[in-house]
C-alpha cells in the first residue's frame, strides 16, 4: 500500500487521505479515503501555478488543415469559462453531462469543466447513432448534452447536431450546448444554446472545489455480452493516480521534453485516460488530431510527427496494419527521428505488425509498449517497461508495478506455462471501476461471480516459459473490431429490429486489418424480401457505422443445441472458411450442411 500512497503523491490533494484502500465493501473499492482533490485543478491549474503556464498543453490539428496551440494558461482560462457556463445552466456536483463532440479542443475543455464542477461526464463517441446516444443519455439521466453542429470526416462536413436532435426528441434533457465547428446551418431550438455565446463571455475565474476521492468522475458506456451497454463508473482519486502513474512509467514520459501523441478518440477510454487525464495530470505537451489518418493523404500522421517532433506515439494495431497496407514508402518520406517510444493498445498486436511498427516507424530501435487494459480497469495494467531488456512481439508481458494479474483455469487455479486460461486481476487497483451505473447485479455478475475474490476480465491468456503474459482475445460474446468492443447481442438485436429479419446470429471472424470483422447470419421472415445492403445500413443506423457487418449471410436455419443455444463456434468456422467442427451436439445435424450450401450460393 505504500506503493500506491507514493504514486498518489503525484497529485495535489486539498485534503490528504487517511487510508489508502478500504476493500471492506468488496467488490466496491474505496481508494485514498477521506482524501479530497479536484481533477481539473490537477490537470491544469497546478501546472500554471507552478510556472508552466506558457508551456503548450495541446498542439491541436484540425482535419481541414486549421490548427491551434493551446498553453496551459489558455487551457485554464477556457476550462474556467466553460465551468462557469455550465454552472450558469444549473449544472451542479453530481449532475450528469453527456458529451458528443468531434476531436476538437472544446471536447477536452468540456470534460475538464465537468470534472471541475464534480459533474460526471458521459462521453459518447461521435460515430454513435441517435438511438445509441439516446439510450446512453437516458440511462445516465443526463441533464445537459454538449455537441457540435457537425464534424469533419474524410474531408466532408457531416452533421452532428441533427443526430442529437433525433436522439433527444421527447427527452428530459434541459439544455443542449452546440459548438460551432463545421459552420453549417443548424436549427436552434428552445433548449439549444451556442457554446461561443454561452462560454466566451464568462469569467476566467472559477474556484475549483475539492471533492471526495471517491466522487464520481465519469461514466463511460461499453459493450457487454447483452444488447444493453454498461455504464462503467470511475471515480476521482484512484483513477487520476493510476492514469498519471502509468502514463509516466509506461511511456517514460518527461514533462517539458516529450511531445506525446495518442491517436485515440475521446469517445473511448483510451482518450479519457491517455489524452485527457493522464497526460494533462503529468503536464504533457501533446498532439490532438481531429481527423482520419488518410485525409488529405496517407502520410498525414507522419507529417504531424515531423512537424511537432512527436517523441511518444500511442496507437492501435488496426491502424498499424492499415499503414502497412499503404506501404512503408509513405513513412519513409518523413523525418521520424524524434520518435522514442511507441505504444499499442486495443487488441493483441500480431508479430508482423509489431515488427513493421518497430522497423518503419521506430527506426528499428524504439521500444514498443504493448499495453493491455480495459474500459473497466481505467488505466494500463499489463505492459513491458520501456527499458525492458527484451521485447516480445505480441505479448503485453508483465503487470506494471503495483498491479497483480494471473492466468487461471476453470477452477480458478493458476495454469502452468503454455496452457491457456482466463486472465484475472486478483488484487484491487486504484483505477478499477466502481460499478455499472444503476446496475449492481450486473456488476457483480459480470466481473465478480466467475472466480471467487478476483476480477474476471473476459480475456483468454497464457504464460510463456518466462512467466510473461500473452493475451489471446475475448472469451465471451464480445467482438473486437478495430480495437472497439462490440457485443454480438447488440448487433443481433439491431438486426432483428428490422421487419425482414426473423432471427439473427452474429460472430466475430478473423480479419486481416480490423482484427475481427462482424459476420451475421440471418433467417428472413416468411416470404420477405431481404436486401443485405439494406440490413447493413440498418445496423449502422441503429448502432453506428463501426457495427456494420462485414458480411451478412441469409440462411434457412441456425445451428442450435437441443437447449436452443446458438453454436457460434460452428458459425465462426463458416465465417472463417474452415472445415466445420464437431456438430454432434446440434439438435438438427443437417443445419450446417444447409448453411454451408447457402454460403457457396452467395
Ligand atoms: C478489451 C478491452 C484499453 C483501451 C482500448 C480497448 C482488448 C485491449 C489489448 C492488448 C490484447 C487487448 C482485450 C480487452 N485489448 N488492449 N494490448 N492486448 N488485448 O478498451 O474497449 O474496454 O476493450 O480490448 O480484449 O478486454 P475496451
Automatic annotation (TrEMBL):
It comes from Amycolatopsis deserti. Belongs to the ATP-dependent AMP-binding enzyme family. CDD domains: ACS (cd05966). Its EC number is 6.2.1.1. Pfam families: ACAS_N, AMP-binding, AMP-binding_C. InterPro entries: Ac_CoA_lig, ACAS_N, AMP-bd_C, AMP-bd_C_sf, AMP-binding_CS, AMP-dep_synth/lig_dom, ANL_N_sf. Residues 2-43 form the Acetyl-coenzyme A synthetase N-terminal domain. PANTHER family: ACETYL-COENZYME A SYNTHETASE (PTHR24095), ACETYL-COENZYME A SYNTHETASE 1 (PTHR24095:SF14). The keyword ATP-binding applies. This is Acetate--CoA ligase. The gene is acs. Residues 50-436 form the AMP-dependent synthetase/ligase domain. The lineage of its organism: Bacteria, Bacillati, Actinomycetota, Actinomycetes, Pseudonocardiales. It is an enzyme of class 6 (ligase). Residues 490-565 form the AMP-binding enzyme C-terminal domain.
Amino acid at each position: 500500500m505504500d506503493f500506491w500512497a507514493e504514486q498518489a503523491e503525484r497529485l495535489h490533494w486539498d485534503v490528504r487521505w487517511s487510508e489508502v484502500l478500504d476493500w471492506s465493501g468488496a467488490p466496491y473499492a474505496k481508494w485514498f479515503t477521506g482524501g479530497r482533490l479536484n481533477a481539473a485543478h490537477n490537470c491544469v491549474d497546478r501546472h500554471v501555478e507552478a510556472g508552466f503556464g506558457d508551456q503548450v498543453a495541446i498542439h491541436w490539428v484540425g482535419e481541414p488543415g486549421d490548427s491551434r496551440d493551446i498553453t496551459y494558461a489558455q487551457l485554464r482560462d477556457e476550462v474556467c469559462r466553460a465551468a462557469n457556463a455550465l454552472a450558469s445552466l444549473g449544472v451542479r456536483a453530481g449532475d450528469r453531462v453527456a458529451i458528443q463532440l468531434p476531436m476538437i479542443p472544446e471536447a477536452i475543455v468540456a470534460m475538464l469543466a465537468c470534472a471541475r464542477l464534480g459533474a460526471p461526464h458521459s462521453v459518447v463517441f461521435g460515430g454513435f447513432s441517435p438511438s445509441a446516444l439516446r439510450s446512453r443519455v437516458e440511462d445516465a439521466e443526463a441533464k445537459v448534452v454538449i455537441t457540435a453542429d457537425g464534424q469533419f470526416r474524410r474531408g466532408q462536413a457531416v452533421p452532428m447536431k441533427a443526430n442529437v436532435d433525433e436522439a433527444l426528441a421527447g427527452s428530459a434533457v434541459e439544455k443542449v450546448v452546440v459548438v460551432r465547428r463545421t459552420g453549417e446551418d443548424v436549427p436552434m431550438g428552445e433548449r439549444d444554446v451556442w457554446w461561443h455565446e454561452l462560454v466566451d463571455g464568462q469569467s476566467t475565474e472559477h474556484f475549483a472545489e475539492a471533492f471526495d476521492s471517491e466522487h464520481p468522475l465519469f461514466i463511460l458506456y461499453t459493450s457487454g455480452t447483452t444488447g444493453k451497454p454498461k455504464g462503467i463508473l470511475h471515480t476521482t482519486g484512484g483513477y487520476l493516480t493510476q492514469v498519471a502513474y502509468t502514463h509516466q512509467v509506461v511511456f517514460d514520459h518527461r514533462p517539458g521534453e516529450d511531445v506525446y501523441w495518442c491517436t485515440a478518440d475521446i469517445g473511448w477510454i483510451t482518450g479519457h485516460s491517455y489524452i485527457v487525464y493522464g497526460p494533462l495530470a503529468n503536464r504533457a505537451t501533446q498532439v490532438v488530431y481531429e481527423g482520419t489518418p488518410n485525409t488529405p493523404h496517407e502520410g498525414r500522421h507522419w507529417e504531424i510527427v515531423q512537424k511537432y517532433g512527436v517523441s511518444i506515439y500511442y496507437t492501435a494495431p488496426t491502424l498499424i496494419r492499415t499503414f502497412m497496407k499503404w506501404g512503408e514508402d509513405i513513412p519513409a518520406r518523413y523525418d521520424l527521428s524524434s520518435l522514442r517510444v511507441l505504444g499499442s493498445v486495443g487488441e493483441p498486436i500480431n508479430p508482423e505488425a509489431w515488427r513493421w511498427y518497430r522497423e518503419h516507424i521506430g527506426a528499428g530501435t524504439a521500444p514498443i509498449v504493448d499495453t493491455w487494459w480495459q474500459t473497466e480497469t481505467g488505466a494500463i495494467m499489463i505492459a513491458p517497461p520501456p527499458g525492458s531488456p527484451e521485447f516480445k512481439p505480441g505479448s503485453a508481458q508483465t503487470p506494471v508495478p503495483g498491479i497483480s494479474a494471473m492466468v487461471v483455469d476453470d477452477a480458478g487455479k493458476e495454469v502452468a506455462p503454455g496452457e491457456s486460461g482466463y486472465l484475472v486481476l486478483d488484487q484491487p487497483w486504484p483505477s478499477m471501476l466502481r460499478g455499472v451505473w444503476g446496475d449492481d447485479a450486473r456488476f457483480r455478475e459480470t466481473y465478480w461471480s466467475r472466480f471467487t475474490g478476483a476480477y474476471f476480465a473476459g480475456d483468454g491468456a497464457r504464460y510463456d516459459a518466462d512467466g510473461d503474459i500473452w493475451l489471446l482475445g475475448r472469451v465471451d460474446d464480445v467482438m473486437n473490431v478495430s480495437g472497439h468492443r462490440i457485443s454480438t447481442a447488440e448487433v443481433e438485436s439491431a438486426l432483428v429490429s428490422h421487419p425482414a429479419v426473423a432471427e439473427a446470429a452474429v460472430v466475430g471472424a478473423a480479419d486481416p486489418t480490423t482484427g475481427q470483422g462482424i459476420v451475421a447470419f440471418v433467417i428472413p421472415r416468411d416470404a420477405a424480401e431481404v436486401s443485405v445492403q439494406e440490413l447493413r445500413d440498418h445496423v449502422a443506423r441503429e448502432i453506428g457505422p463501426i457495427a456494420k457487418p462485414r458480411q451478412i449471410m441469409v440462411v434457412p436455419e441456425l445451428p442450435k443445441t437441443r437447449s436452443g443455444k446458438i453454436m457460434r463456434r460452428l458459425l465462426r468456422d463458416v465465417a472463417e472458411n474452415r472445415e466445420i467442427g464437431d456438430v454432434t451436439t446440434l439438435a438438427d445435424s443437417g443445419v450446417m450442411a444447409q448453411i454451408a450450401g447457402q454460403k457457396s450460393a452467395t
